[in-house]
Amino acid sequence: MELSVPAGSQSGDKLRLRGRGLPGTPPGVGRQIPSIGAGLHDRAPLLSVAGLIKHFPIGGSKDVVRAVDGVSFQIDRGQTLALVGESGSGKTTVGQCLLRLINPGGGRIRFDGSDLAAISEREMYGLRRRIQMVFQKPYVALNPRWRVADLIGEPLGLVSELGPAERRRRVLTLLDLVRLPARLGDRFPHEITAGEQKRVGIARALATSPDFVVFDEPTTALDIRVRGQIIDLVRELQAELGLSALFITHDLNSVRSLAQFVAVMKTGVLVEQGETERIFAAPEHAYTKMLLAAELPIEAAKQQRKDIVRMEAAK
Predict the structure, then answer these.
(1) E strands of the chain, at which residues?
(2) Is the pLDDT of residue 199 over 80?
(3) What residues are paired with 111 via a beta bridge?
(4) Neighbours of 35 (CB within 10 A)
(5) Looking at the predicted structure, is the pLDDT value of residue 13 above 80?
(6) What does the pLDDT look like over 29-72, one tens digit per residue?
(7) Does residue 222 have a pLDDT over 70?
């Protein structure tokens, strides 16, 4: 797709969405950001997960890997839940089950009244524009033979039939939304940096004006400077668009500024969940304490680990 500004477009109209929703939002309908806790009393949560299970068989044996084993949580409109834990704890599997990229083995996933674990593939296809995912490895998710503009424009097919000029306009808008220059639209994935690839993945996820986004380790494999830029971008998008999100990460430093709630996952189960400030200020489970200690300076972390081990041994 060759990117050029359609004739008659105003630069402000072409590039700025702030305060008025994503491409595809009806004119005059901006997204209002619900206050924290909205929906707790007057309406059901946007996403409710109950007893989610996903086991994987091991070769030809009867043994299984209990990747997800009875996970339950909920996310209200406009809220973000951070799902934290070490690599291999089952976090990404939860995200993949939510989008039905893999089929759950049990439990219920209720999204705005629909049980995603029970509906047909056709019904799920109809909901995909409302539920999107930013993948952990963008270089795997991005077709290397497509230019950036085509990669961002592809999901727009889930929304409606668009003419070439309107598609170009929306792609330009999405590039600006994720703070990328229009000239990158003509490049291939291997011609841009890892941080830019992450931004392209975010733009693709936002193309359909979703209500809910799964961010799967969006800061993985980035240097400290670029990691901070991606965290700032996600925070800005939350404020501008009022997104509901599941933020999957093992980087606890990014959690406090992005999520109102935290769920801690260890070997397929949630060991603790609650409001973010409470989890950081007064963690209850030993594993949560270990994760938080790992983020401290080395000497402080060593001492806290010793204290945790001593307290657990005394129980």
Answers:
(1) 47-57, 64-75, 80-84, 106-111, 114-115, 131-134, 212-216, 244-249, 261-266, 269-275
(2) yes
(3) 47, 114
(4) 10
(5) no
(6) 333 323 334 444 457 899 999 999 999 998 878 899 999 999 99
(7) yes
180/189 Cα distance (integer angstroms): 13
Q: How far apart are CA 274 and CA 61, in angstroms?
A: 38
CB contact set of 86 (below 8 Å; sequence gap of 6+): 250, 266, 291
Residue 192 has pLDDT above 50, yes or no: yes
Contacts of residue 51, defined as CB under 8 A and 6 or more positions apart, other chains included, come to: 70, 71, 72, 106, 107, 108
Domains of the chain with bracketed CATH = 11-23+34-282 (3.40.50.300), 283-315 (no CATH)
Cα 72 to Cα 12, 29, 97, 260, distances in angstroms? 43, 33, 13, 17
**Residue 160, token pair as written in the block:** 């409606």
Q: What is the rounded CA–CA span in Å between residue 168 and residue 158? A: 16
Q: Cα–Cα distance between 136 and 284 in angstroms, integer?
A: 29
pLDDT bracket for residue 14 (50, 70, 90): very low
Higher pLDDT pick, 141 / 65: 65
Looking at residue 1, what is its pLDDT? 57
Look-up of token digits 């011609």:
191
One-letter amino acid for residue 41 of the chain: H
Q: How are beta strands 131-134 and 80-84 bridged, if at all?
A: unpaired
Structure-block tokens of residue 297: 């300076």
